[in-house]
Structure formats: structure tokens, C-alpha cells
Amino acid sequence: MIRLKDISKWYSNGSAKAHILRHIDIEINEGEFVSIMGPSGSGKSTLLHLMGMIDDPSEGEYFFEGESVFTLKEKQRSELYKKHIGFVFQAYHLIDELTVYENIETPLLYHKISSAERKAMVADILDRFQIVGKKDLFPEQLSGGQQQLVGIARAVITKPKLILADEPTGNLNSKQGEEIMDLFTRLNKEEGVTIIQVTHSEKNASYGSRTINLLDGKIAL
Ligand SMILES: Nc1ncnc2c1ncn2[C@@H]1O[C@H](COP(=O)(O)OP(=O)(O)OP(=O)(O)O)[C@@H](O)[C@H]1O
């Protein structure tokens, strides 16, 4: 599904280059549940953003389902993203002014889906995530765990093949964290969704089937 070839990223710092990622080669198959670990500053989020097509490398190639991502035009790239990828953020990134229902519905507005169908899809996911009773509340009226559930519901409503999650349990207590990991496990095992998460937690990584360790922008063996 994903093939990164000799990816490097640096920022120019005067005449010097500050390298964030160096010569990264990664292949990820459909159906995998992969964790990316490494010390703070090792480049994990940068790598996840590259995979999520929301950042560009300085060098290297990225093939998503055989499509050469970095040579696509902006519009085609965003189509590819919208069709296949759901992104889950540590800080939820919900829209404060919208209700739970409206937040979850938002990604559907960018697809050609009728309003009746949108209603049915949101109702289904509210039900599956057991948050029907929260649908008219605003994010600030929810606990952190509930907000992250809404963040994930919003990421999966378009039925993406790939979920990218940047420390999805970083702001949650351990019980809420376990619920999120159980949810990812179900999506992966029962629906075949490929999951790539950045985590600092060995416990969270143990839910996955493979760990990629980053150290100073390189893959550590
Ligand atoms: N726009 C930027 N300009 C310069 N340096 C940057 C920029 N964005 C990120 N960096 C640097 O890149 C390095 C890697 O950042 P990244 O967020 O990918 O690390 P991380 O492994 O996810 O860290 P953490 O675990 O603390 O979130 C850091 O040293 C950071 O300061």
C-alpha cells in the first residue's frame, strides 16, 4: 500500500541543513497495524505527515497504491487523500463551533453524498461508537476520551483504507487509551483498515503487528 523510497527531509538553517529524516525506506502492506516509535524529535510526526500527504520531503519518492504521490498535482493528491486516508490527531482538532454530529459529518461534505445518505452514515457511526447521546453537544462539553472518539469517528466515516494517528492517546487516561486501542484493533481485524500510529507507549505499540523505530531521523534496526 505504502512505499517510501530514500526519503530525506531537512530545513535550511542559514547555510547549514537541519536534517529531520535521512534516507528512509519503508514498505507497509494493506491490513498491517504499524507503530512508529522513537525519542522526542526523532522525526516521527514528520514521517506520519509525509505518509498523510500533508507534508513534502526534500528528497525521495512515495508510492501510495502504486501512485507516485509527490509528482501528483495538488488537486489529485488531495483527492487521493480524501478517498483513502483518515488522520487522527493527538489534540483531536475538532471544530469548537460544531456539534458532535456536525463534526462527524464534515468530511462527507467534501464527497458527493446526498443529505439523506449522510444522515444515515452519521447515525450508523454514532451508534457503533456508542455516542448517540452526545450528538448535539459541543466538543468542550465532552471528556478528552469522548472527544478522541469523535475525532476517530470523523476519521473513519468516509471508510478510509488507511488511518494515520499521531499519538492518539497522548492526552487520555489509561482506560480511555485502552478503549481507543481496542477500537483500532477492531477496525484493523474486522474491517481490514491499515493503521499506522505514532506512539511513545510500548503498551500501545503492542496492539500493533510491527514497530518501526526512529532515531535521529533514521530507521533504527
Ligand atoms: N518547520 C520546521 N522547521 C525547522 N525544524 C522543524 C520544523 N518542523 C519540525 N522541525 C524539527 O524536526 C524535528 C522532528 O520533529 P517531529 O515533530 O517529527 O519529531 P517527533 O519524533 O514527532 O517528536 P515528538 O515525539 O516530540 O512529537 C524536531 O527537532 C523539530 O524541531
TrEMBL record:
InterPro entries: AAA+_ATPase, ABC_transporter-like_ATP-bd, ABC_transporter-like_CS, MacB-like_ATP-bd, P-loop_NTPase. Pfam families: ABC_tran (PF00005). GO terms for molecular function: ATP binding; ATP hydrolysis activity; transmembrane transporter activity. The keyword Heme does not apply. It comes from the Bacteria. Residues 2-221 form the ABC transporter domain. Gene3D superfamilies: P-loop containing nucleotide triphosphate hydrolases. GO terms for cellular component: membrane protein complex. Belongs to the ABC transporter superfamily. Macrolide exporter (TC 3.A.1.122) family. This is Phosphonate ABC transporter ATP-binding protein. It comes from Solitalea longa. The lineage of its organism: Bacteria, Pseudomonadati, Bacteroidota, Sphingobacteriia, Sphingobacteriales.
